[in-house]
Amino acid sequence: MYKIYPKVKYIKYTKDEFTKKDKYSVFFTENLENVFTNLKSFIKVKKTRKVGDINFIYEKARSVQTYKLVIEKDKIDVYYNDASGAYYASQTLKQIFKSEKLETVEIWDEPKLLVRGFTLDISRNKVPSLKTIYKIIDLMAELKMNHFELYVEGFSYEYDFARKHLLEDGYITKEEYKLIEDYCFAREIDFVPNQNGFGHMGPWLATKEYKDLAICPDGAFYWGRHRNPVTLDPKDPRSIKLVSKMYGEMLPNRKSKYFNINFDEPMELGMGKTKELVEKEGLSNVYLDYLNLVLEEVKKYNKTPIMWGDVLIKDQEALKKLPKDIIFVDWGYDATYKFSETLKTLGTLNIKFGAAPGTTSWCSFTGRTQDFIENIKSACDNVYKYNGLGILLTDWGDAGHLQLLPSIVAPLVFAGFYSWSLQEGEMINATKYLNEEVFQDEKGNFAQILLGIGNYYQFENYYITNATLTFFGYMWAHYALQQEKPLDYYYEKIKNSIIEDVKYKALVEYLELYRKGLKNTKLKIKDKKLVLAEINQSIDLVLVTRLLMQSFNHKLDKTKKLKLLEKLSKNEKILEKQKELWLARNKKSNLAESIEMLEAVFKLGKLHCKALQGENHE
Description:
By secondary structure, this protein is of the alpha/beta class. It contains 21 helices and 17 strands. Helix 15 (469-480) runs antiparallel to helix 16 and helix 19 (558-569) runs antiparallel to helix 21.
C-alpha cells in the first residue's frame, strides 16, 4: 500500500508489479519542463519521442488540475489536461517511488478546491531569507498547493522611489522577488503580487514625507490604546499617486494574472479628515469610491484584483456594487469564525470569493492548535459548499513577529491536505506526514509535541479571538513602560488574565512535559538542532511571560511573587536566543524593535521586583 499525501480521490490496486529500472525514458505529448525537472529530482530520466517507460498524455476532456495515473507492469501512463495536473501526478509518483516494491495501480485524483494558497507576512519586522522562502515553497509544492503571496506593507519591498526609507537588510530586493517568482512557477505555484494601499500604511505615514496623507496624522484611539496613523486619506489625490508609484514598481512584468490589493482595516475611516464625509455618504460608499480609483490603476497592468472582505462583508448593498471581476476574500482566524454565514452571503450574491483562515501562529508564540484545525476546516468546507474558488491560508506578524518557523508548518500541511481532499481524518494524516516527511522523526513523536504546545492557551481563564491572553501579557508590558505608572497600567490590562496558582502550575507542568518529550524524538532533517531550539524557545516565551503575569497575582504573598520575578530575571538569556534564532532564518530586518518589545517583559519585571522590595511604590 502506498503512502500518498494528500489523499487521492480514487485508487485501485491491480495486483501486479512494475519493474524498476536504473533509468527511465519519458514521453511527453507537449512540453512540460516543470514536470521533467521534478521527475529528475527522484529518478534518472531521459526524454524520448516515442512511447516510453513513463508517458504524459494530454486529454482535452479532462478537467483542469486533475490527473489519471496508471501503473502497469511495463509502463506508467499519466493523463492530464493542464501542466498543473501533470505536475501533481509527478508529485504522486515521487511518493510512490519511495516504495521498494511498485505495485500496479490506477489512480484518479483532483482537488476539491481550485485555489489552495498561502500568504506570508514579510512586513511586520521580519523579512525571511531567500532560503527560508524556498523551503516554504518546496513544502507547498509537496502539498500540491498552487498560490503564494508575500504580504507587503511599508518598506519590505525594494522601491527605488522610496530607497531612503529602506532598512538595511530589511526588504526583498527586486532581484529576489523575480527569483521567488521563477521558483514558484517552476513548481506550478502562482506567485501573486501583494501590496496594501489604504489601511496598514503606517510605515509610510510615519515619515515626514507622507505623514499628511493620513486621515488622522496624529493617530487615533481604538483597540484599547492610542495608535499611530495607518490609513491613507481616500480624498487626497496624493494618496492615489503614492499607490500608483508603488504599483508601478511591483507590477510590471509579473507573471501572475492576479494582484492582491488587500484594502483591509482602514481603521481611521470615519474619523479625522473623513468624519463629515462618512457621516454624509456612508462608510461603504467612501470606501468603494476609493476602491474604484485604485482598481483603475490595477487595470493598467491587466491584473485581476483580489481584496480582503472585512469592511464590506456585512453590507450586502455595498457588496452588490463590487466590480464583477474582483475576487473577494473573507478572512477569519478562529474556531468560532462563522464562514458558514459570510460565505453563504457571497455565494448567494454570485460574487467570486475565497476564504482566508489563519495559521494562528501570530499573537500566540506557538500557534493555537485547536483553532487552526477548526478554522481551516470551516473555511474549506464552506468555500466548497457555496461554490467559492478556494482558500488563502494566512500567517501574520503582529506585535513583533516573535513566532518561529515551526509554528506555521502544521497548519500549512493541514490546509494543503484538507483543501485538496475535504476528506475526514486529514489531521491524523497530517500528523503522520509531519513526523515522517517534514521533520523525519524516526521515533514518531515530534508532531504530537508541536501540536501539543499549541494548545497551552486552553489553560487560560477565557477564550479570546486572534490571540492568547498570555501573548497580551507580553504585549502590554511594552506599552506599560511608556506610561506614567507602568505597574498600575499593566495590572489593569492583565488582571483578568492572571490564572489561579493551581492552574498556573498545571500549565508549567504541561509545557515542561512536552519539552521533556523532545528527548524522545530523533529528527533526521538537516536543521534538526535549529528546529529543536525553536520549539524550546517557543515554550520559553510562554513561560517567561506567564512568570511576569503571575507575579501580579494578589492572592500570592510577597515572597512567592519575588520568587517568580527572580526566576524571570534568570531567563533573560532568551533575548540572545531570540536574536540567534531570528537570524538563522531571516534577514536582520527590524529585529531591534522586536527585541525591544520582548525586553519589556524583563524590564517591567525588575520594576515590579523593586516595588515589592519597597524601593519604589506601586
